[in-house]
Specification:
seven-stranded mixed β-sheet; 2 domains; alpha/beta; D-Maltodextrin-Binding Protein, domain 2
Length: 367
């Protein structure tokens, strides 16, 4: 989850295009964990590390006798390549919403039989009204996580400037006190929106303007962070960070509830979510749907929330009894969504946009 949407390599994308005529981009460096051949009594599952409780999968095996072979995603490009060329087979996949359209376009997903996943009724109604771009009717996917937001998180006690816009991160008072996510889509999307453009713009002039803004912010930037900006914020190394870490900060300590704040940025903030999907190549669709349904049991789903504090996907009256009593007191669990949802944007990866952004991103990182 926290590893999402890192810089993609244009050459890698071009190779995938040649294989499968797909469009999209990647997230990190590699998909780790070699999947075993699945059988009627086993499932191959690939997820983001640091997101799901292993106890949840063990419980599924205890109840059903079906083994779960877990692999971890670290690069969506590589996952796409493996699925397209048939070098790997997964039954259940934990997909970022920005990539769902690409997976569907390449015929990589199986339609979900909703009758086999009745525990979707536990999901907050608002999150079932519309699915990710490309699967708005949730035909191929099932929400597995409530939306989270990429925005500026700041230290209320030490930040020397009031932040309303991404442009405020260029203030000289923040010299060496800023962290930025190492994420092409998140960075350029935020800059484009700040400038009054659309996050999914493919206009090179607009993307160059976004790069110019990011280059100015870079002058104040202490670090580009891939997985998380939590250490830099908690240790006082930076006063502000464009990141997706507010829920993690709040989950670390109640002291952080008052120490850190988030900004509803002018131009909006990035909203993103994750989804369960069944691979078209799966020979165990029925068991795959059984696993998704099992995970959505409140007593099971809560095990992941207890390990990795994130906004709840499921209805409060269904899951609250399985969570710490103060879980909903955290401003990250309910208040953040109320404050940011109506001022948020979503984007889907675009081969054309990524190709344009890639050169600018290399320049931004000084590579």
């Amino acid at each position: 989850m926290k590893n999402r949407l890192k810089k993609k390599c244009a050459a890698s994308l071009a190779a995938i295009m040649a294989i499968g005529l797909m469009s999209g981009c990647g997230s990190q460096t590699s998909a780790s964990g070699k999947a075993k051949a699945s059988s009627g009594k086993s499932l191959n599952v690939i997820v983001w590390e640091g997101t799901w409780s292993e106890d949840m999968f063990k419980d599924f095996t205890k109840e059903t006798g079906i083994d779960v072979n877990i692999s971890y995603i670290s690069n969506t490009d590589e996952l796409l390549t493996k699925l397209i060329n048939g070098s790997a087979t997964y039954d259940v996949m934990d997909l970022e919403g920005a990539y769902v359209k690409t997976f569907i376009k390449n015929g990589l997903l199986e339609k979900i039989d909703d009758d086999k996943v009745p525990n979707q009724s536990n999901i907050i109604d608002e999150y079932m009204k519309e699915g990710p771009i490309g699967d708005e009717k949730l035909t191929y996917t099932v929400p597995d996580m409530a939306p989270n937001y990429t925005t500026v998180v700041y230290n209320k006690k030490t930040c020397p400037v009031k932040i309303k816009s991404l442009k405020d991160l260029t203030n000289p008072k923040l010299k060496g006190r800023v962290a930025l996510v190492d994420s092409t889509i998140s960075l350029y999307g935020a800059a484009l929106q700040c400038l009054g453009y659309k996050a999914d713009s493919t206009n090179e002039k607009e993307i160059k303007e976004a790069n110019d803004l990011l280059m100015k912010i870079k002058e104040n930037t202490k670090a580009f962070v891939g997985e998380t900006a939590v250490p830099q914020l908690e240790d006082g190394e930076v006063d502000a960070a464009l990141c997706w870490d507010y829920p993690t900060l709040c989950g670390d300590s109640e002291k952080n509830w008052d120490k850190f704040g988030y900004v509803s940025l002018d131009g909006g903030v990035e909203r993103w979510a994750q989804y369960w999907a069944v691979s078209k190549s799966s020979k165990n669709k029925e068991n795959a749907e059984k696993l998704i349904n099992f995970i959505l049991k409140p007593e099971e789903y809560s095990k992941s929330l207890n390990e990795y504090a994130v906004p709840p996907l499921e209805k409060q009256d269904k899951i609250a009894s399985y969570l710490p009593k103060n879980y909903y007191d955290s401003p990250a669990m309910t208040q953040m969504t109320k404050d940011l949802f109506d001022n948020s944007w979503e984007a889907t990866v675009s081969e054309k946009q990524i190709d344009i952004m890639d050169d600018y991103y290399t320049q931004l990182k000084g590579e």
